[in-house]
Specification:
Blueprint: E1 3-7, E2 14-20, E3 25-30, E4 35-39, E5 44-48, E6 53-58, E7 64-68, E8 71-75, E9 82-87, E10 95-102, E11 108-114, E12 122-129, E13 132-140, E14 143-148, E15 154-159, E16 164-171, E17 176-185, E18 192-198, E19 204-209, E20 213-217, E21 224-229, E22 235-241, E23 247-252, H1 259-264, E24 271-274
Antiparallel strand pairs: 1-24, 2-3, 3-4, 4-5, 6-7, 7-8, 8-9, 10-11, 11-12, 12-13, 14-15, 15-16, 16-17, 18-19, 19-20, 20-21, 22-23, 23-24
Length: about 300
């Protein structure tokens, strides 16, 4: 399968790939450069943020919701104004938000990690309303990919150093988690699991940091279904987008690579694209206050 360039870039830590059907564009972030990007194949609009931004998702009614610093925030795409709507525990000099996604009811989930990757210093949070963020998973080290099965009954989650894809029973109406289990043990594979996305069949696509690949695992039993090699060592997250949501868009990073590695990986930091022959699902727009009537 060929892998092409969707947008050439030199992102330090490109992350958070998320398709916005309303904009017909990919939303992604460069965490360490404090930038949110909205990209088509032809152009990119960029927005500065006041703190390191881990992820960005489309917001119901327009604009984006961000996981930024130790907070959730809104971004107005017309004027670029960023407004904090809820804070999470942590010293912003030590802790930052990382990857996130919306659940089937439109709640924004995002996790934290320590800059020094201290074990257990992070957590996974659920944004319920302005000034209301609930801690849902404690003692996380590097909170990364999160996604839901098509029926909304399971949540898949990556805490990168565990080298596993975890699965929780999920209650859509309440936004609560049941028992946690290991869905995939990736320790025998190259690299470590980073961001993830779900396809329309309920399978899990995961970018592998230092693994130079995106891998697809069965949502039913965790079997490895497909591996897409990429021409960079540090892919970070993937998302389905483009016509019919049939393109797999992949963010990548340059952070931590030596000069020799960067010379060998000229596409590091760019957004890549593959066509794996399956379709994805559009993200549910994020809402700031999930009322019962908003739940499908």
């Amino acid at each position: 399968m060929s892998v092409d360039v969707f947008r050439a870039a030199r992102a330090t830590l490109g992350e958070g790939a998320c398709w916005d059907p309303g904009l017909d564009a990919l939303v992604w972030v460069d965490i360490l450069e404090r930038q949110v990007h909205v990209s088509t194949r032809e152009a990119t609009r960029s927005y500065a943020t006041p703190a390191h931004v881990g992820s960005a998702v489309p917001r119901a009614g327009g604009g984006l919701l961000l996981a930024m610093g130790c907070s959730f925030a809104t971004l107005d795409l017309d004027d670029g104004v960023v407004e904090v709507v809820a804070r999470v525990p942590g010293d912003p000099a030590r802790i930052r938000m990382n990857d996130g996604a919306t659940d089937p009811a439109g709640r924004f989930w995002a996790g934290t990690m320590a800059y020094d990757e201290a074990p257990g210093a992070g957590a996974l949070y659920r944004l319920d309303a302005p000034d209301a963020a609930a801690c849902m998973v404690e003692r996380v080290t590097i909170s990364n990919g999160v996604g839901w099965s098509p029926d909304g009954e399971r949540m898949f989650y990556v805490d990168t150093p565990t080298r596993t894809i975890a699965v929780f029973a999920f209650d859509v109406e309440r936004g609560t988690l049941g028992p946690r289990a290991v869905h995939v043990d990736t320790s025998a594979l190259g690299g470590v699991p980073d961001g993830l996305t779900m396809d329309a069949d309920g399978n899990v696509w995961v970018a592998f940091w230092d693994g130079a690949a995106v891998r697809c695992f069965s949502g039913a039993d965790g079997a490895l279904l497909e591996e897409i090699p990429v021409p960079v060592s540090r892919p970070t997250k993937c998302a389905f987008g483009g016509p019919g949501l049939r393109e797999l868009l992949i963010t990548t990073a340059r952070e931590g690579l030596s000069d020799e590695q960067l010379a060998a990986e000229p596409l590091a930091g760019s957004v890549l694209v593959a066509t794996p022959g399956v379709a994805g699902r559009a993200p549910v727009p994020a809402v700031l206050d999930v009322a019962p009537e908003a739940i499908a």
